[in-house]
Write a structure and sequence with these properties.
single chain; 355 residues; globular; binds pyridoxal-5'-phosphate
């Protein structure tokens, strides 16, 4: 199967080689060295400010979102949530569950955030945003958000789960207190590890806040990370896969080169479907995903036929949009030839009268 979903995605050979071995014991100096290296490389790739830290939690991306909400924010905060799809909605649910004082900015599905939507919220203390709203394919205007937060001293937490590697992320320039990602998106290893980079601003809050939980405690993760360890048994092999992947990126020319590769695959795909009856629903596309509304056939049927007849996975949308929108991911180990196979399959479907 060729996998063009938005995660889990296909892994490269270097990662698969690591995944094919038994799990080693991890309370060792050797494993700690790998963890130190993972932390250092992630902070470099994100251009995190001096004295930032990075932790690796054994949980999915949502675990990192919840951990940030519980450990960095508190009852005194007034939180802005940008909500333009299912992942924005998840932050809203988390604020609700953890009884935070919040306001959501609703963005119409597929639409960019506008400056006037931030007006009147200057006295808030924190802002939660999914840099790339994976459900609609919208890449938010991060310079706008960052400038607003800096000007008003608002703590910025960026869910970059699907944006990391696909888009340039400069934590220092954004002034972000925390940036999160997950193992199964553009990191392109198995699901199970969430990564959170924390600037000093977030570290100070974590130290001062009352503990809300144990398993997702950032205090515990940070303390243990000082010796290259985790408080509980982590997804050891995924951490090793992340190490292999970070090294592979380095060896292939660095993170900017990897981003160019993803952008190239995305551009080629978008060019290749211009003659097909699809409408791109995102006003501001990321390199990670193309979200399409098919004009002549239901989205569910397209997803099913690609899977059953062409051995290609693309990503269905959920809820009311299940039959209206499907998404094609451009992250993971996708070659130009793989991309062409997807384009050929779609054109074959058109020739067969399915599209
Ligand atoms: C995938 C994704 C998540 C959730 O990740 P899980 O690993 O499924 O919990 C959160 N935010 C964004 C933007 C994502 O793309």
């Amino acid at each position: 199967m060729l996998n063009f979903t938005v995660g889990p995605v296909m892994s490269g050979e270097d990662v698969l080689e690591v995944a094919g071995h038994s799990t080693p014991y991890f309370r060792t100096p050797e494993f700690s060295d790998i963890m130190f290296e993972n932390e250092k490389m992630m902070l470099e790739y994100l251009n995190a400010p001096e004295n930032s830290r990075c932790v690796f939690l054994t949980t999915s991306g949502t675990g990192a979102m919840e951990s940030c909400v519980m450990n960095i924010l508190n009852k005194n905060d007034k939180v802005i949530v940008i909500n333009g799809g299912s992942f924005g909605h998840r932050f809203v649910e988390l604020c609700e569950l953890h009884k935070l004082d919040y306001t959501e900015i609703k963005c119409e599905f597929g639409h960019q955030l506008k400056a006037e939507q931030l007006q009147g919220l200057e006295n808030y203390t924190a802002l939660l945003v999914n840099m790339h709203e994976t459900s609609s394919g919208v890449l938010y205007n991060m310079p706008l958000i960052s400038e607003f937060c800096k000007k008003n001293h608002i703590l910025l937490i960026v869910d970059a789960i699907s944006a990391f590697i696909a888009e340039e992320i400069d934590m220092e320039e954004l002034g972000a207190a925390a940036v999160l990602t997950g193992s199964q998106k553009a990191l392109a290893v198995q699901p199970g590890i969430a990564v959170i980079a924390l600037a000093p601003e977030a570290l100070d809050r974590i130290a001062a806040n009352e503990e809300q939980c144990m398993y997702l405690s950032l205090k515990l993760a940070l303390d243990n990370g000082r010796r290259g360890q985790t408080p509980f048994t982590p997804a050891v092999t995924i951490l090793l896969q992340i190490n292999a992947r970070l090294h592979a990126i380095e060896e292939a020319g660095g993170i900017a080169e990897e981003r160019r590769k993803i952008a190239g695959i995305a551009a080629e795909f978008r060019e290749g479907i211009r003659d097909l009856p699809f409408e791109n629903i995102s006003e501001s596309c990321s390199n990670a995903v193309t979200a399409l509304h098919p004009l002549t056939t239901g989205a569910k049927e397209i997803v099913r036929i690609l899977k059953d007849e062409y051995q290609i996975w693309v990503c269905p949308n959920g809820g009311e949009l299940a039959d209206k929108v499907f998404r094609v991911g451009h992250i993971g180990h996708i070659t130009k030839e793989d991309n062409q196979k997807l384009l050929d399959a779609l054109h074959d479907m058109q020739n067969r009268g399915i599209l």
